[in-house]
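Kindly inspect what follows.
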Amino acid sequence: MDAVVGDGIKGLSASSDESEFESIASDTFSEETADLKSAKQTLVNLPLENYDDLESVSELVADDCAHVEGLKVSFSKVEHKSTKVERRSSSTEGQQLNDFVQDGTKKTIPSFPDENQYNNQQKAAKKEPLTWELVEMLQSELDQLRKSLRQPPSAKATIQKMIMGEEYLLERYRSKEDKLCLLDEAIAACDGNAITAVVLFLRSSTESRIFTRELVLRPAATEHYISYLRQHRLYEDLIWFLKVLGRTEEAAMLSYSVALSNAKSRQEKLSKMQQCYRDFFQSDVALATEAALIHDQINLLPSQLQIEEYDKKNAAQVFYLLPCKASVVGTSVITSLFYLCLYHYQSPENCMNSPQFLLKAHKLSEKQFQWTALRARSQLRNWKDIDKLFETKGFFGGIKMKPVMGFDRVVAFVSQMKAPREVLTRYCSLIDDVDKRLEVATRFRCHRTAIDTYTQQRDRLQLLRYVASLPQGQQDWTYGSDILKTSTIKWKN
């Protein structure tokens, strides 16, 4: 039996590594102690006179002893580990293990700290223990650090860091007084970047009412903030801020410009213009003149859309003679009038594409209409339409030509448009002022008009000088020479 027990102990000790110990400690203790208890009970209840079963009893005892010895070896390893971790608790843990073996009840084995954790605990234990003097010193240092964090550096020092490009922290300035002092220092330093940075910090950390009120009191900061909003195209904030400052005209014109430039479609453009007109121009008496112009433009845009749609469906012959290079939609009233005089001059007055309809709808002056029509019909070299343009009724029902701008300016313009010589002569002769007529005739070489004017004045000497300045043999030279030879004219000199 001793041999059997020895072989069992050797086998268990050879195979009881650390992993087997963990398995035994967690799962097998309850079964093995139950077997051991059962074996003990069997020995107690075994009758002494039955010696024939002694061999089976010895085998049973040998198996149970092998289990017991294996458990002892495992527990010795546990005790060895526990002494490495903490020596003062070895007796208690050993007692727990002994109780575990003796009772045979299922218990939980306590967990053991890591070796590195144990070494750190040992190093910490070797340090000097805390005393009241050390605690007071640490508390004093902590109070000084908190005090330094609560009190920000001087505003002037922070502004100097901002100017020099060093690191700074504006969030340490928490009170309103500190923030305003920082803004005043930035304004005093006359550094635009510092002013803008402090203004943006003030905007993000204070109420809108306080921010606006304090910024109004500092014009330099106000202008830098407006410039920042304009450069970053924050138009909504800029328009609101201008209205708060009372600069309604500037806010209105900016809103109108944004409505024209940011619209993605023509309908959106019309909608934004109407909104801008209602918000800024309609109720402001100071913007009455601008309001009338914008109102006319709002009324013009739907007409332009209809005209363009009509021209796409009904292209006239004039479009082939003089192709349209741009769309009429979105242009001014005068440009739209020029477009209609160029392509729809003969349309009836009651049609939307008629120049006369546009003239009455937008209350244009006669001078605006004549100048625009003169430019349009001159490009088509339609001089007859220009003659009819200048025709007016006299007091006695007669028809005469009298442009609003004066024939001297008409002659200058049609000369630039390379009008024929007879057209220039005819218009030049209709200038009422004699001196002006002679000046224009000499400037634009309307020789016959100049000769007739000198003849009407009966100034023979001036006529001789003028005819002498003309090349001999030309038609105008012959015309002047014939007048000088006539005897029916009573010359004054």
